[in-house]
Design a protein that fits this description.
Blueprint lengths: L3 H12 L12 H43 L7 H12 L3 H10 L8 H19 L1 E4 L4 H8 L13 E4 L5 E4 L7
Helix pairs in contact: 1-2, 4-5
Protein name: Translation machinery-associated protein 16
Family: Belongs to the TMA16 family.
Length: about 180
């Protein structure tokens, strides 16, 4: 959490002898406090958008971390990895179908249904072109993945690959590039 406002407030309190009540609305100190508060709000908004952007990758890695743990932290075969990818890609299909059936005939789909359809299509297209995930065939990488604590910075220690539906495995770098 940004703390510019607290630092600025402490400096002003120290300068004014511990009294902050007597600030004039347009004084320099008041302007400094206002600027610091605006900066803190901007930094918090940036951090919030970054967390929202990183959330899908973290959810993906969490899913594959659990898949590896179910396999006793042993490397997975390409077929098993592709089965897990397919399972992950089609995790929203049932929810989409129930929403589609619940909708009355002739009605336009709702925004949630549209978002699910878009998410499913995006995941399927990514799987066609190369699904981005940690390398689950490398023993050392699995040990690092097992110790992962759901932090974004720790993900750079993992080896990453892209796997297509045809079984082509290409090593890649972290973070994912929007190509």
């Amino acid at each position: 959490m940004p703390n510019t406002l607290e630092k600025t407030r402490k400096k002003i309190l120290r300068k004014r002898g511990g009294v902050l009540d007597g600030l004039h609305q347009n004084s320099r100190d008041s302007q400094r406090l206002h600027t610091a508060q605006g900066r803190d709000e901007r930094l918090e908004a940036i951090a919030r958008s970054r967390r929202r952007r990183d959330k899908p990758i973290i959810a993906r890695v969490t899913y594959f971390q659990e898949a590896v743990r179910q396999n006793d932290n042993k490397p997975l075969t390409l077929e098993a990895i592709q089965a897990k990818i397919s399972e992950f890609v089609h995790q929203f299909d049932q929810e989409y179908e129930t929403m589609k059936k619940a909708r009355r005939a002739g009605r336009a789909p709702g925004p949630k249904e549209d978002m699910l359809k878009l998410r499913i299509a995006t995941l399927q297209k990514e799987y066609q072109n190369g699904y981005y995930l940690p390398d689950l065939t490398n023993e050392n990488n699995l040990q690092v993945l097992d110790r992962w604590d759901k932090s974004w910075t720790y993900l750079a220690n993992l080896a990453w690959v892209k796997i297509t539906t045809t079984g082509i495995v290409k090593p890649t770098l972290f973070p994912p590039q929007s190509n």
